[in-house]
Fold this protein.
Amino acid sequence: MTAQNPIVFQIENLNLFYGEKQALKEISIAIYEKEVTALIGPSGCGKSTFLRVLNRMNDLIDSCHITGNVTYHDQDIYQPKTDVNGLRKSVGMVFQKPNPFPMSIQDNLIYGPKCQGIRDRFLLKQIVEQSLKQAALWDEVKDRLKESALALSGGQQQRLCIARTIAMKPEVILMDEPTSALDPVATAKIEDLISSLKQDYTIIIVTHNMQQAARISDKTAFFLMGELIEYGDANQLFSTPENKKTEEYITGRFG
Amino acid sequence: MSNKRKAQDFLLQFGTYFAAFFSFATLSLIIFFIFTNGVKLLNLDLITHDYQAKTHIAEPLAPNDTDYFEPEETLKAEVYYSPRWGLGLIDSIDLMGKTQVEIAYVHPSSPFQQLHDKGLSHELLSLKPDMMIIRIAYSDQPSSLARYGAEQMIDELALSNQIRELEFTIPGGGIRGSIITTFYLIVFSLLFALPIGIGAAIYLNEYAKNNRFTRLLRSFIELLTGVPSIIYGLMGLAFFVPFIINVSSATSGSILSGSMTMAVILLPVVIRTTEESLKVVPDEYRQGSLALGASKTQTTFRIVLPGAFPGVLSATLLAIGRIIGESAALVFAIGTAIKDDIRVTEQSTSLAVHIWAMMTDEPANIELSSTIAIIILLIVLLLNLLIKLLTRRFLRKVSAPR
Ligand SMILES: Nc1ncnc2c1ncn2[C@@H]1O[C@H](COP(=O)(O)OP(=O)(O)OP(=O)(O)O)[C@@H](O)[C@H]1O
Ligand SMILES: [Mg+2]
């Protein structure tokens, strides 16, 4: 890789506490545009916590507070005057467990745009079709848009959640173990999807699956006990890790 | 040891059987009591008729000596008919359960088709089936009274040549006014209680931090559930009745002040039930919505509240049951005037208060009370079914078709 993509997120000396307990320690990392960045590490090391820093979902947890710098396109997103809803609109999130709303497929997709004040029927219809197509779900559901989203299979639900995020026309998509609740076939579909979405979106994905991280990510970050141990090119990190702990973890000799 | 255990098991098991049987038997007995007492008076007239009977005193023309009116239709066997007067009477009980002489048939040419009202109006009246005769006073013999029955009245009528005056009523005793009041009460009470109750529940569950203040608020609401309703009635009398008198044309307790009192009684139930149903809305929905850039308010009202809809419906149902059944508080807050012409700023009675009024009558009217009880049970049953249906339709719309 020669020319480096522009930086989307620049994080410096990030410390995060749940009450007294420190969950992230002195994290400094830069996330690059239109790349897939994978976060790996053992359970409880703070991957999800870090992901939630980026769209301020940690605000929902009362005991959580942070120090350090988190900038998104050179804007400090932890300023008091930050438009949090606007941030979450451009930094979308897909959760571990598929969580479509208990409404029709179509309503799931237009819920977000409607909350932004979009009322134009034609436009909404277009958004539904486009986002479903981008999420590779259109062919499967185009005849049942008015049916409940809960009637879809788990894999379809997860792709619907991705489509729902895409419908907001975000710049970044955060994914927290999006395939951990899915079977191998559904997982493969989502992986293909992620690779194709890379053209248009910056993707940050948490995964426990080393092969998955190696397959789909451009950059990989290895977390351990709240610290960022190693961060770099995925190929290089998986073939010739610099840190001993990284090597132990990716070769499964960890712990 | 094993025998002792067997005995213990048997006793406990028998205990549960007995408890179940006892509850079932008691319930059946109550329903049996209500039905056997009430079903006699149960008819459509009771529901549609006014409560107030309209009584007239009038004077018919005398028949000619030669008049003989053959009835133009075959009369039922229990009808006593006087061909000379063209009048058929029948023994009956009125809507309130009192013995009456009811008019069964009036011949088109009968003298009773043209009566001169002796009251203020001087209009021309005529007797019609379903009206009740109270008294007939003759110029040439002692009066006939309704309480001696239809047969004797016809016999005496046949002997007379001239009627001096006739007292009859267009029957009353219907509960139409109380039914209307009950529905008004349901609508207005829910109108006051649901928005406030749901709003409070949303505040407590979605916005309030879990601190000493909200904990205090919660236990306070819990406490309010246990306050006897008569105390709310006193409060209604002290606050809402004067309030409504001040802001409207009301001069006493009214449907509005009753509804407000009722709303206060309902609030704790509505808040509790709604809060419980908000609690079971999965957090994933909230997070999913927020992560899409929806605001907290949008998330609450477009995702969480619809998710709590079945719970809100059951809160509504509980509330309606409470409104229909309440009497003590309402006696103070709307008054006990049984009326036909219902205005929201005036006194009237709900069905439950109507029962209360009938039972405090001298003598207590158990039959009518039981009939009203049947009607109340039917209304509650219908509303129950309606809400079940609504819930099921709602759930079918949002959940997987399985
Ligand atoms: N809401 C919270 N309150 C307090 N502590 C929390 C909270 N959420 C997470 N933690 C703690 O922060 C640490 C990091 O948790 P986090 O969920 O980020 O781990 P993770 O790397 O995503 O783990 P996993 O792979 O199991 O999802 C853990 O020790 C966890 O116990
Ligand atoms: Mg996690």
Summary: The mean pLDDT of chain B is 88. Chain B touches chain A at residues 209, 282, 284-285, 287-295, 298, 302-303, 306-307, 397-401 (CB under 8 Å). Chain B has 13 helices and nine strands.
